Amino acid sequence: MKVIVVAFVLLTLTEVAAFGQSRSRIVTSPSCPYLSDSVVLEISGLRIGDKEVSFDESFVANDDWLASIVFRIVNKGPKPIAAIVITVGLLEGVDEKLPDNASYNYGVQFVRVNEVKAKRGQSKLVSLVGPGKEIEITAEGSRPYGLRYMDAILGGTTGANSWKEFVTKAGARFQRMEVMGADIWFTDRSEGDAEMLVRVKCDGKK
Fold first, then answer.
1. How many CB atoms lie within 10 A of CB 60?
2. Which residues contact 54 (CB under 8 A, 6 or more apart)?
3. Which residues, at least 6 apart from 155, have a Cβ–Cβ distance to it below 8 Å?
């Protein structure tokens, strides 16, 4: 019995140590929009905490990388934006590819909304980022999608006290993030899919 207990303790300590390990990660960029498309959002930069990283190039980061990732976004459109939702898919391996015609089982939506609650009637959407201005989108206030994702990582929907804690735990499992796209809402309550342009990658393709 003592041998079994010791083995269990050693296994547990090994798992805890592995949780904080640094390892290779990668964030893949969305496809460059066509010349005829109206680009509304430009990704001007990407960093993990204070460390600048590049799209489509592997980098080393700890297991909290999803919680500390920061997208710098520029509003390239003519109207103020009140809400931005960036949707990403997650894969376990740096070189793992999503099979043809398959959907992501796991993902995160990075959400920023600037909404003023009204005492009566409809709440008001207020400018989050004006035309030509830049904003940072982080895991703070983000939310996961898919119950399979939540069950796989936390063992249920109540395993985390915040979305930031959720992505911290998810970061220990996943090494590859693929940016799928974004949805936006303007202050006039119109909405739509946002063509996203990565500054360095797409500069020569505008």
1. 12
2. 46, 200
3. none
